[in-house]
């Protein structure tokens, strides 16, 4: 099966600091790839470059054979409305706080071409149920929701159009441990059900093990190790990966 997205030779420096240093990766349809590493390792920068939010100084990102950074801004926005989705660490960055819960989900459907109000509301209601939000709260504003509920609403808004590729930036960051576990179970179930390709950035090794088929380990802008998730975590080869894994086991 050919890669859905392929990146090669990505270079990006902020002054003398290498945020990305000759990074390459592939993701295939239906595959979940985790990008892990400490803060400052370059993992979020990589995600933003892959999603077309930042341009590399060198290298290419191809989606379905098209160069993401050679597209016009309108074409990239079109992809984000249709083929792509982005789940932010802070759900407030991915929600319209002055629009109701149902309206947040419905807006994404309308951006994809839906026009029948009754059908849009019915689909929004169904998606609130799927992410374990009481559908009776469809007309409530997101700021009245807890952090975990806001994140689940953002996931519903992102997945309602069934994108082919979803970018997730620390989707469980800042949530209580019990809320994280519930959210991870929900993400895993929806990803499997919809057959999504997902690129997920996380510092949480346990989350990566639960969700990802493959893993990339980043340090100082470089991918120092990659492979099947269980292989990388059970038999880490690079000293940095060994340190990451041992720190989790010791916690």
Order of helices and strands: EEEHEEHEHHHEHEHEEHH
Sheet with most strands: strand arrangement: 6-7-8-3-9-10
Straight-line distance between termini? 39 Å
Hey, roughly how much beta strand do the residues contain?
15-25%
- Count of folded domains: 2
Q: Can you tell me the CATH superfamily of the largest domain?
A: P-loop containing nucleotide triphosphate hydrolases
Percent helix: 25-40%
CATH class of the largest domain: Alpha Beta
What would you call the shape?
A: globular
- The tally of helices reads 9
List the helices and strands and how they pair.
Layout: E1 5-14, E2 17-27, E3 32-36, H1 43-50, E4 58-63, E5 66-67, H2 73-81, E6 84-87, H3 101-111, H4 117-130, H5 147-159, E7 165-169, H6 177-194, E8 197-202, H7 205-211, E9 214-219, E10 222-228, H8 229-234, H9 239-250
Parallel strand pairs: 3-8, 3-9, 6-7, 7-8
Antiparallel strand pairs: 1-2, 1-4, 4-5, 9-10
Helix pairs in contact: 3-4, 3-5, 4-5, 5-6
């Amino acid at each position: 099966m050919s890669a859905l997205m392929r990146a090669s030779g990505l270079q990006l420096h902020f002054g003398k600091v290498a945020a990305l240093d000759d990074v390459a990766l592939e993701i295939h349809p239906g595959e979940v790839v985790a990008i892990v590493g400490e803060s400052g390792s370059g993992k979020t920068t990589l995600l933003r470059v892959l999603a077309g939010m930042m341009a590399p100084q060198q290298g290419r990102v191809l989606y379905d054979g098209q160069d993401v950074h050679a597209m016009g801004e309108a074409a990239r926005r079109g992809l984000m409305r249709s083929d792509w989705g982005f789940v932010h660490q802070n759900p407030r960055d991915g929600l319209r706080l002055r629009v109701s819960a149902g309206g947040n989900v419905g807006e994404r459907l309308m951006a994809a071409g839906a026009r029948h109000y009754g059908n849009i509301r019915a689909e929004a209601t169904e998606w609130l149920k799927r992410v374990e939000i009481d559908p009776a709260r469809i007309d409530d504003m997101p700021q009245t929701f807890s952090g975990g509920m806001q994140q689940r609403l953002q996931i519903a808004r992102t997945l309602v159009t069934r994108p082919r590729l979803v970018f997730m930036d620390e989707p469980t960051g800042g949530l209580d441990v019990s809320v994280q576990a519930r959210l991870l179970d929900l993400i895993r179930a929806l990803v499997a059900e919809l057959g999504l390709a997902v690129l997920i950035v996380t510092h949480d090794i346990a989350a990566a093990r639960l969700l990802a088929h493959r893993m990339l380990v980043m340090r100082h802008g470089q991918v120092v190790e990659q492979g099947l998730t269980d292989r990388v975590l059970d038999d880490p080869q690079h000293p940095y990966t060994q340190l990451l894994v041992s720190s989790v086991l010791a916690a």
